Amino acid sequence: MDIESLKNILRAGISKEEFLDSCANTKNDRKEPASIYDGSITPAAIFDELDINKDNKIDENEFNNLKNINKTDGENGSNILSEDDMNGLYNNISKKMEEYSNEFPEKAYQKAMDEGMDANTFLSSITFQITTLEGLIKLRQDSSDRIIKQIQGRIDDLVLKNNNTNQKLKEKYLESREKIEKLEKKSKTLEIQVQEDSENIENITHNIICLESEIKASGEDETNRDEVKSKNKELKKLNKTLNRFNSSYNNTIETQFEINSEIQSINLDKILDKIKSNDNSLKSKIELLEQNIETEENSAKQDIENYQSQINNLTAIQEYTVQKIQSEPVMSEYFDSDMETFSYDSKTLKEKWQKKAPWLSDGFYNKATEVSKRLGCDANVLLGLMMSESGLKSAAVNKSSGATGLIQFMPSTAKSLGTSTAALKQMSAEQQLTYVEKYLSNCKKSAGFKSGDKLNAGTMYTLVFLPAFAKREILAAKGDKYYNANAGLDVNRDGKISKEDLAQRVYKYMK
Which of 121, 303, 332, 444 has the most neighbouring CB atoms within 10 Å? Predict the structure, then answer.
């Protein structure tokens, strides 16, 4: 979400649930929920930074604290919510992250374990912080560009409004500035295209790596010949699409380079030097503003280097944590391959789970077995999945993402189901099962399964986080950034995150 959108939503008196729902309404609707591979500067993290007294509400004082981050707003420094206030807020979030980023990997990991944090949860936290810092780098650069543009505008005003400046020089300066602005606008458009192509290349490359791993895993098994043939056909199509985006990316980069070279060739500094040489008073004013530009450039550079340093440290912690997780013993074999033995007896289900979740009602167990039967999964798998996500607590809220409820509905997902995270939080576990079924049924259909198809634990887990890959056996593999960010899920340490690995995670909560 951009800063301007946040400024329009933030207000005194808003609750966390209202804020998260407003963010979901403002943001473009997504057809899929945030996956295990996603991360961003989440609205929940922003709210938690502002909510000093932790009462899940932004009161007047807390909102004024936000407006006071930038002391130069208006006459009294507190009468508007400015762009600099929002950038300051993001900077404060970044500083909070230094708790782990300045530690040695071993010490940071041990500290988290001593605080009772699960290794996989810690890995997710570190990955989230890395992604947030990457976002902060872009925000800081955008902020710097905006500040420098404002200062440059003041220089332009001084030149064009000065009566002592030669008219021809003015016209030449104005012509050059307009040409530069036009070229910069083109460059900005190309930058957006580069970003879009880059994201497409990343996603397609991820698909290719996973598909290649699946084909390799199929080996020479004759029974898989038709399936392998189909996958090779799909792989050929993906490679063709990848080549198209790579070509677009390279052409755009080349055009961008040509535009930047043209901007440099205009040499506005030479014209400006002539203008300054004719008026000492004007010269001193312009040079002061030029010093301000240089100061801002150095400040932005220092901030970005600091963010990058934190990213480097966190990446080392991330790698160490993955090694620790993968050194643990592999769990027992994949348990639900025989889908004909799925249980739909509510009494048996209750006997298995009541000690783990004594707050659940008989009505919940009755409904859970009916929902599982309609979805085509083992009822134990459904509860294992919800236990892994929320501890089977319908009011559970993830502080980092704002995800709420039994399967941690994102605000945008809740909205797409005709409800909200605030409403879900007030529901009982039995009531919330209606939305669990609705969501999983939609995902099952969009993934290409038939209504009567039975689903094992790995498929169920994938439907919650990555519906688009629900028919894939391999979800990520070494050589792609998605694997690196979630390598802790590679239970059997074979260099791939598969549905079988995810099933083991669900099974762990079913013991």
Answer: 444
Residue bearing the bigger pLDDT, 312 or 132 = 312
Is the per-residue pLDDT at 508 higher than 70? Answer: yes
What gap in Å lies between CA 33 and CA 416, rounded to an integer?
10
Q: Please give the structure tokens belonging to residue 258.
A: 């040509």
The rounded distance, in Å, linking the Cα atoms of 3 and 27 is 12
The phi, psi pair for 332, rounded to 5°, reads -65, 170
Residue 161: count other Cβ atoms within 10 Å of its Cβ: 9
Point out which residues pair with 124 in neighbouring strands. Answer: none
Residues 83 and 94: beta-carbon distance below 8 Å: no
Q: Are 139 and 87 in contact (CB under 8 A)?
A: yes
Q: Enter the pTM of the model.
A: 0.65
pLDDT tier at 65, thresholds 50, 70, 90 = confident
CB 223 within 8 A of CB 196: no
Q: How far apart are CA 324 and CA 375, in angstroms?
A: 36
> Does residue 69 carry a pLDDT above 90?
no
For all residues of the chain together, what is the average pLDDT? 84
The Cα 174–Cα 169 span in angstroms is 8
Contact 34, 401 (CB under 8 A): yes
User: Residue 94: what pLDDT?
Assistant: 67
Burial of 288 per CB tally in 10 Å (0-12, 13-18, 19+): exposed
Q: Name the residue among 207, 205, 193 with its Cα closest to residue 249.
A: 193
Q: Please state the φ and ψ torsions of residue 359, each to the nearest 5 degrees.
A: -80, -10
Look at residues 12, 15, 5, 4 and name the one whose alpha carbon lies nearest to residue 404.
15
Dist. CA 139–CA 133, nearest whole Å: 10
Contact 136, 253 (CB under 8 A): no
